[in-house]
């Protein structure tokens, strides 16, 4: 009888999970680290598609405080990827960095040395980068949005769509 109770409780917990499997919970958000490389635009589209599969709105990650930065750096440190797109860009106005999720200007940043530098006038998308030889230990760099990189999606933690029973 105890085994059946444990199984039932496990199924209920899974149904009510606030972050899907393979997503990581931090504060009020769920985060997903891709394994595939995409352009910034394709990464954004894929985050949106993935979110819809769960009945939620998902987008590229907003890193709006040091705690979120530290949490994502920890997640990224367990991968072999050297850079993950996040949702900051200055595509509309050079030098005015905004979050794709809200259009609001970034107020927290973790730019690496000499960043953002808009090298060759072509770098408009933010990436969490691991390149210690260049001084980037999970700092942000600006990169061309057409680079094929891994990416981090986020969606709300509290938007639960539990299945209807009965």
Automatic annotation (TrEMBL):
Gene3D superfamilies: Mannose-Binding Protein A, subunit A
Keywords for the protein's UniProt record, in alphabetical order: Signal
Classification via InterPro entries: C-type_lectin-like, C-type_lectin-like/link_sf, C-type_lectin/snaclec_domain, CTDL_fold
SUPFAM superfamilies in the record: C-type lectin-like
Residues spanning the signal sequence: 1-17
Organism listed in the record: Magallana gigas (Pacific oyster)
A matching Pfam family: Lectin_C
Domain C-type lectin, first and last residues per copy: 26-154
Protein name: C-type lectin domain-containing protein
SMART domains: CLECT (SM00034)
